[in-house]
Design goal:
Rossmann fold, binds NADP nicotinamide-adenine-dinucleotide phosphate, about 45% helix, alpha/beta, globular
């Protein structure tokens, strides 16, 4: 996919989909700035895997739900690498609960991490991308944006907002060669879905046309295409990688 000479910032890259995305981009020749929140051992393990692929990798610890952090992380990446060609807004959390039982903190934490943080991170990377007239931004949405399950109102609102934001940024940034897309996974084998997969297996399987969960690497393949220089004509798109969940 020819990422040679490019630098990608992957948020939430210590585990799960973010780690798989970082590894895939590195395999395709990209140097990696890896953000994570608190799992230092796992982030270091991810960095070791990337290093073995012969790519440069640096870790940038920071809780992106703190509004000061996205700009600080981007400044750090720019100081270390000099440029950011690709931004993958992957960091995300769930706090599933029926709305009547959600605390204000449950609502704010999910919106701050899944929606406000990607907005502030794009705000931080965009000026230099605009000057260089090149950039690829991929936001990790979710099938919950269009097909929310019970207890997902905070998460669905955040991811629905993220998809609308993706389209708005595609409009604002297209004229300077910056393409902005989203990938909406269904149910992927990661820590985030442990509880859903163990308690809601029958219901989920009944809604999955392909009758299986996917591995993070399957999502990473889709992200890598949209993030690559080979993507020259797709922007403002939401690519569902969901085993047909959205059709059910
Ligand atoms: P995961 O396994 O729980 O990993 C989450 C990652 O995000 C970790 O690296 C975590 O860092 C990081 N993170 C969380 N909050 C953060 C914060 N405030 N600041 C910085 N980093 C933060 O999640 P996943 O399943 O890979 O999900 C990745 C993305 O895909 C999320 O946006 C999620 O909503 C979306 N998604 C996942 C699925 C699925 O089935 N798994 C489906 C649809 C959408 P630490 O390790 O340091 O905590």
């Amino acid at each position: 996919m020819d990422f040679e000479g490019q630098v990608a910032l992957v948020t939430g890259g210590s585990r799960g989909i973010g780690r798989a995305v970082a590894l895939k981009l590195a395999q395709e020749g990209c140097d990696i700035a890896l953000n994570y929140r608190s799992s230092t051992a796992e982030a270091e393990q991810a960095a070791e895997q990337i290093g073995k692929l012969g790519r440069r990798v640096e870790l940038f610890q920071g809780d992106l739900s703190d509004p000061e952090v996205p700009h600080a992380v981007v400044s750090g990446v720019r100081a270390a690498f000099g440029q950011i060609d690709v931004l993958v807004n992957n960091a995300g959390i769930t706090r599933d609960e029926l709305l009547v039982n959600q605390s204000l903190d449950d609502i704010r934490a999910v919106l701050d991490t899944n929606l406000v943080a990607p907005m502030l991170t794009v705000q931080a990377v965009a000026p230099a991308m605009l000057r260089r007239r090149y950039g690829r931004i991929v936001n990790l949405s979710s099938s919950a944006a269009s097909k929310p399950g019970r207890g997902q109102s905070n998460y669905a609102a955040a991811k629905g907002g993220l998809e609308a934001f993706t389209k708005a940024m595609a409009v604002e940034l297209a004229s300077r060669g910056i393409l902005v897309n989203a990938v909406a996974p269904g149910v992927i084998n990661t820590d985030m879905t442990d509880a859903i997969r163990s308690h809601g297996e029958d219901e989920i399987m009944s809604r999955l046309l392909l009758k299986s969960y996917a591995e993070p690497e399957t999502v990473a393949d889709a992200v890598a295409y949209l993030a690559s220089p080979r993507n020259t004509y797709t922007t403002g798109e939401v690519l569902h990688v969901d085993g047909g969940l959205k059709m059910a």
